[in-house]
Amino acid sequence: MVINAFRIPMSKGILVIVALTAAAILATGFSIGTGAVRISLSEIWLYVFHGYDGPMKEIVWNIRLPRTLVGMLVGANLALSGALLQGVMRNSLADPHIIGVSSGAGLFGIIVLILFPHLWSMLTPIAFLGASGAAAIIYLLAWKDGVQPERLILAGVAVSAFLGSGISALLIFFSDRVNGALVFMVGGLSAKSWPELEIILPYSLIGMSLAFIGSSHLNILALGDSNARGLGLSVEAARFFLTALATLLAASAVSVVGLLGFVGLIVPHSARLLIGSDYRFLLPASVLLGAAVVTFCDTLARLMFAPLELPVGIMMGALGAPFFLYLLRREAR
Fold it and tell me: Does the keyword S-adenosyl-L-methionine apply (predicted)?
């Protein structure tokens, strides 16, 4: 019954996944091969897969490849987090940045960068604590004989505004220490390398695995709370688990690149237009499309005003704000 309600042709789902995989691979090649020094796809193949010891090996292995992989995982994590939150809240306007989860991670991240820079290696678990605290507050504010998606959205927006004011206060009170925090505020991949990849990779693997396992719960939640309970699902437990999972994914991404907004909003909605609302297909589609979008936008941000490099968050904001307004008008209609 549940599967039939969301069934799409298997061939279409597989075809879209294959196309998005190809898009992610192309975005990867574009990112590694493009810059001040251009590197052909054949050279990239030799450097990456055959250990070729050519003149560009240092650029490929220690600069572009790790930065690209970090960008892909960040995009995948944020997109998957947004897809989970949209499924839990049954609202296409939900994403970790808008409802406050990213703001909690960002506030704790800013505290570490400004007040305790020696704890940089602990940034990811500390950011997760901040995101978890924000999620817990949102749940408490939204709880009244259970949690309704509408109350979660409203509580999340209020908590996001409150935490954002805390971030602004820190930047004002410690204005002499904000150089590193400014890039963190908008989200950037500059100088990201293998250490950042080692930080985010375990969280990505764990989060994606659990999310794919929980995709059937999202399909059931989409039928409404009453129907979900009738099918034997513990609605509150499922909603809490999936929200915690989305929090983990968002916090890991924020701890590495900062407050990169709109990825969790744009990508899942776009993936839904391509592949439908069956979360068995929507979640992997969001992962692949998120990886491709962030990688492609980061490459454009590097090239548009070269040698000046824009943080990828500025590019995502330029794309995401109009898209958000479009969704608002569509919801109003």
Answer: no
